[in-house]
Design brief:
Chains A, B: Homodimer. 2 copies of one chain form a homodimer. Chain A is α/β, with parallel strands linked by helices. Chain A is 40% helix and 14% strand. The interface between A and B is large, with 124 and 124 residues.
């Protein structure tokens, strides 16, 4: 792999002296490096391959960091990273992983924000540009000159991007919005504006209605989005422009893949394969929890679509990573709706479907449900609509800091009227989906797709929580309105009770085993709460009889979470009773790609930590 | 006031038989009734006056409830309510207040949803229409025929509305989006698309770029938005249309006010006066907490704008209700930005401003900050940008169920890296704003504007928490990074410590007083926590010395809130210590216009309730 030119680029200043032909060569080197990197390491390769030329042209024309370049979502910033002193992380295998997959100001002064959710770049750019305007107004200097936002056509469908366009359309001063139009969102584009974008491309930018002019913005079209010198020309023309402008560039996602990639990649219509992150690396590996459980649910639902017009699966543009495979989507027909990257619409839309008698399932990541927190509360829960939210990647994972699932219990669990379920096996997951999408259920439900600890237990043949769900369902519906309102005790013991939620249910079992193996064995109870929207007060009260310590264990943030509610229950409802509660879970903090085992260590919640804490408490109690 | 025709309308069927002239007369009667109602009772009169004819025409043409009519935000549904059996609530003074200000399925089968936040009607309508499509596809009957969403030009700026338009633009089957364009948002319109809407109006709908056609939608313009027979014609033309269409109607907000109203209302450019809710009723009354404290903050900030280019106030279209008066806005110039109804953009935009060195203040309601939960977490907190969120109407209020502030502690308080302050006096509020918008502060801060309990104490001359903030600020910045990380003990006592947050700080003081007046007086400690983002562990540990009971009191939902964290602190950090904690706050539930006193009773948190609980606990402790 040749990296002659690349080796000479230590920062943007080294790009500026290249000849037009050298710019072309540099792009080739970068593209070749990405393909090799993608095969070995994985990553969002498709979008980065499309943006090679634009990144080079941006750094050739603009003067970062005085000119601010803001990448929306920022997973398409690999070339930008290579041009700003971080090429080794993509060209040298031993340095793969030394930079994040997103922009990060801690890595470089050329990165403005840590971004991993879509659509905010225009708003952020408006803000930086307005700060410059204010300084100028006061006759003060500022380190902000041009402000450039780069946003993809897929990300453009997300709500906040439109709010940003609308405000950019009435803002004064320099602001350059580069629309990276690769004709393709994560899976495919959905929405009426994509027809308009296509006609704008076909007409070379002259088509009316022009989406951006409708927002009051100036507009320029560049067909050669992978022609570095055409881009240089276009960017030079708009540099220092004195009012906001959209530069619409037409790029090709995945450009430069070889035949081997193409089999797996964008050209064969499989572009989403987890955003074409891992074209080859994961071949043959067993599926992770997200895709495994997602496929299970979709297979299960698929059988019902023939006779049940009311079952609808909605994906806000993330089908692939959640096991909603192309075969399912094809078979489901109108029962599957990809709304584009539009969590707010997806959840409101589901509420509308439910109001009209359907039982919709909205499937996306816990971290993306954050986008629609208000609609979860208002359109769904306040209105009591039987929408099922299938939440992926919640709890403790090794995710980067923009995709953490650790906040999901606090987000969902404190919304009135929302039943929050945490299944701990595939069969329980399917039972819960069956119930929540049945006409028997009339209220909103979130189901937290299990994580890898549960999956490992499932695969290892661990006995699942022995609950006859169908019987429980019918017995409990009569009494409680939802079948998972009671905890299930998997092992009856005494003295200490361990209650573990989600993946932490498995870990709680390991603590129970470890306690039984102590020199002075403790035969603890092991309880599966199944849900985190209400407490099973009856079970908690009964523990008083022969337990003095309850230990809660959850795979998410403690503050605002679930375990501390149990602590408060005993203190407030049974103030005279000698029950003590210890809570284990995550500290309130952002973590960035920290493996789960390490997070457990950092938060003093390994099996040994918990056994120690229990013994310590009990010995103190004995002494007292 | 004549109500001859209105008296004969018991439901939509009675509208359908009227002659064109009678339709005109009916509109006159409704308009007259609104003006009288508004003067006596208050309400969102301006938008309702503009929509009288459209409401009558909708019920003349469409067949509710088989045709579904969905009002966005739904505070413009008064005429709809009058036409669907609820006229007395607007014409008979003794029945004012018997219906809510929003649509409500519990009131009528003609109301589809409870809605109070903007922009979701298009998505909800897409969902109901798609449910109908699916039933048809399966050859099944459905009770959904036409689906009609009515959305104002102001609401159209909110993110989710664009997501909805984009999806409507590629959906099949009947779906009618009525754009109620009164040229006016709550205060005034902001954003590039409003220039386009103006040109579309001026051209009679022929102007290009056409905003709605850009989203792939059919389009029709009706200039006579207050001409009931013109509207009847337009709606008849689009009824049963087989693909989505936007009907853009040009209406006049506040049409029909008399001279007395006009002095106070929309024609004089004061249309926002709390959405022109209470044109006369509140004249001369003292300001409530929102406007009182909002004005205090703005007056305070105003003095700094001359010399500090970095201070910016951002309002997502709700200046009036938060004390951001026209005089301030005028004086602030570019330092005040109304972004339109765009909470997500407003918060991302603030992050951009902060990144470029500014200290922006985003001022809106707690309930509207829900819309931007994800940006609060990602763009602001994860990125550590020094944005100040000035949150109004948080905590316990008598608000309707769509505007409750009771969830704010759980929403803000569990986000990593976000400092959450709860001042308990005007001077403390200003100190906190001073600090958070100073260059000394480098992190995001939410400041919860106090509620009416604090305001009453402020006005009553109650000694405020005796903290020398300036001294504390400088002393503490060095040690802790933020000056309000330590609790302030207002009264040192023993045995029992009361810690009350926000308005509940005042209530905690009342409990302390009541305990001192018991036959066997208890001299309790009274502590002001000042904030809810972290615990002052040092103060909590010190209480162990001479207290056995800590009582927390908060003016919001207990679950996910603040007090239960203190309970968990003692159980986990000081497990061997005999400290008990009782928590008082709200149950996890939606409430609808329940007065604060009643909420305190319902949640067993009146002064007497708390005194009783304390005595009960202490007597049990004595017995044990």
């Amino acid at each position: 792999m040749r990296t002659d030119l690349l080796d000479k680029i230590s920062g943007p200043q080294d790009v500026k002296h290249l000849t037009p032909q050298e710019l072309v060569e540099l792009c080739k080197e970068i593209r070749t490096a990405f393909v090799a990197f993608g095969k070995e390491h994985g990553g969002h390769i498709g979008s980065n391959l499309g943006l090679v030329e634009a990144s080079v042209a941006l750094h050739y024309v603009f003067d970062s960091p005085q000119d601010k370049i803001i990448f929306d979502v920022s997973h398409q910033a690999y070339a930008h990273k290579m041009l700003t002193g971080r090429a080794d992380a993509f060209t040298k295998a031993e340095q793969f992983g030394t930079v994040t997959g997103f922009t990060n100001p801690a890595e470089s002064e050329h990165d403005q924000f840590v971004l991993g959710h879509t659509g905010t770049a225009i708003s952020l750019a408006c803000g930086m540009a307005q700060a410059r305007n204010l300084a100028h107004e006061h006759g003060q200097t500022t380190d902000v000159n041009n402000v450039v936002a780069i946003i993809g056509d897929g990300a453009l469908s997300s709500a906040v991007a439109f709010e940003g366009l609308n405000n950019a359309g009435c803002q004064q001063g320099n602001l350059i919005i580069v629309l990276n139009d690769n004709e393709m969102s994560i899976a495919e584009n959905h929405g009426g504006m994509y027809g308009t974008l296509a006609k704008m491309r076909e007409s070379g930018g002259s088509y009316q209605p022009n989406l951006f002019e409708a927002f009051g913005l100036d507009y320029r079209y560049v067909e050669g989005g992978n022609d570095v010198n055409a881009l240089v020309k276009a960017f030079q023309d708009v540099k220092n422009s004195e009012q906001p402008i959209v530069v619409h560039i037409h790029t090709t996602k995945g450009l430069g893949m070889d035949a081997q990639d193409a089999e797996h990649g964008v050209r064969e219509g499989h572009c989403e394969r987890n955003h074409w992150q891992d074209p080859l690396r994961d071949e043959g590996k067993p599926l992770g929890a997200r895709k495994y459980y997602g496929q299970k649910v979709m297979d299960h639902i698929r059988a019902r679509l023939v006779g049940e017009p009311n079952v609808v699966v909605i994906s806000p543009a993330t089908p692939g990573s959640n096991g909603i495979v192309p075969e399912f989507r094809k078979a489901a027909g109108s029962h599957y709706v990809d709304t584009g990257i539009t969590e707010e619409h997806a959840v409101s839309y589901a509420s509308g479907l439910a109001k009209a008698g359907c039982r919709p399932v909205v499937a996306t990541s816990a971290t993306f449900f954050q986008r629609t927190f208000d609609q979860l509360q208002q359109e769904v829960s306040l209105n009591g609509q039987p929408v099922t939210l299938l939440s992926f990647g919640g709890g403790m994972t090794g995710a980067d800091n923009t995709h953490s699932g650790a906040f999901d219990i606090a987000m969902f669990g404190n919304i009135p009227g929302l039943t929050c379920l945490a299944p701990t096996s595939a069969s329980m997951l399917l039972d819960m989906v069956d119930w929540s999408t049945s006409l028997e259920n009339t209220k909103p439900v979130v189901i937290r797709v299990p994580g890898n600890a549960v999956l490992q237990a499932d695969r290892g043949g661990l006995d699942e929580t022995p609950v006859n769900v169908q019987a429980a369902l019918h017995a409990r519906i009569e009494g409680h309105g939802q079948p998972w309102s009671r905890y299930v005790t998997r092992q009856h013991g005494s003295q200490v009770a361990l209650i573990g939620l989600g993946d932490a249910h498995v870990w709680a079992g390991e603590v129970v085993d470890a306690l039984a193996e102590l020199d002075e064995p403790i035969h603890a109870s092991w309880i599966n709460p199944l849900q985190f929207s209400s407490l099973d007060e009856s079970t908690l009260r009964a523990l008083i009889q022969n337990h003095s310590l309850v230990v809660t264990l959850e795979d998410g943030q403690l503050e605002g979470g679930w375990g501390e509610k149990i602590t408060a229950f005993y203190q407030n409802e049974l103030p005279g009773m000698p029950m003590h509660v210890l809570n284990f879970g995550l500290a309130k903090a952002f973590t960035d790609r920290v493996p789960v085992d390490e997070q457990r260590k950092d938060n003093h919640m390994t099996t040994q930590d918990i056994v120690n804490a229990i013994c310590c408490y009990l010995s103190g109690e004995t002494r007292a």
